[in-house]
Amino acid sequence: MRVLITGGAGFIGSYLAEAYLKKGDEVYIIDDLSTGSLENIKSFQNNPHFKDRLFVFTDSIFNHDLMLELTGTCDAVFHLAAAVGVRYILDNPLESIKINIQGTEKVLELCAKFKKKVLIASSSEVYGKHLHAPLVETDNIIYGPSDKFRWSYAASKLMDEFTALAYFRTKGLKVIIARLFNTVGPRQSGAYGMVIPRLTEQALKNEPLTVYGDGTQSRTFTFVEDVVKALIALMENDAAAGEVFNIGGTEEISIFNLAEKIIKHTGSSSEVVLIPYEKAFEKDFEDMLRRVPGIEKIKKFIDFDPETDLDTILRHVIAYYREKLTSSSLI
Ligand code: UDP
Fold it and tell me: From the CB of 255, is ligand 1 less than 6 Å away?
């Protein structure tokens, strides 16, 4: 099979590319490297078994001619190219909306033209500010006002979902929507706000761990390799077309407890400091206080078991950052 991965040099995209290469498939990556990095694919790019089956295009999905050629060539498309991270979205509001809305529309239009099955990466952000758990695909959504820019990301991803479902309904396009919940693992950058790489790097440098707010907000983290298994299984499942799925772990933890766990795992001498939201972000920032996925639906379609627990995830991430920091001789 030939697989096109937009955003294939990103954190999740690179693991997805590697998994397909290991399966013996051909992989086409298009990535403008705005938040992705060739560093992410370096470890497998030169593998002699993969070399002839991996094609990397450092370009934008707005390059129509290239996307036309790639979509026409491939059998299935994973659309992962998007703005990522709360920090990135707040710093690049217009660019984020443009890539998420116009970019996804472009990909859907081409997939419909060539009748190619497509998986759209959505986000748990789509649910907005709920306090209940678990969040299920049929839940209502609650956003803040439009001057609180965090919600632009949620709204743009929701618009992607509507557009994808409209293509399914009106053109019969086989489209799958995956709402990803805090996917984590080695290669994830802390530069765009993500908490685990940020706190891990701080702990390894024996710097204070910056927990925003009072630290009682919680998340469930999912190991990237578990997520990738689910994405591949959904793509292979005919009944999944036209459906929306949560993909996420079930182990809920507060960010304060996460910080303490990271200190323990790294053996760091760091302390946790609480940073008020208005210092970390602009003054009208709103956090999502809780985010736990219901995974009953996806389990009915595929064999989904987010088996990697948080301690194991942290061990992998810490080992990755330890090596990275040692090789750049920062510690
Ligand atoms: N967070 C934090 N310190 C940081 C980065 C993030 O306390 O240095 C918090 C953030 O406010 C949120 C949680 O960690 O409550 C998860 O943040 P992340 O950006 O990783 O993901 P998202 O907010 O999209 O779930």
Answer: yes
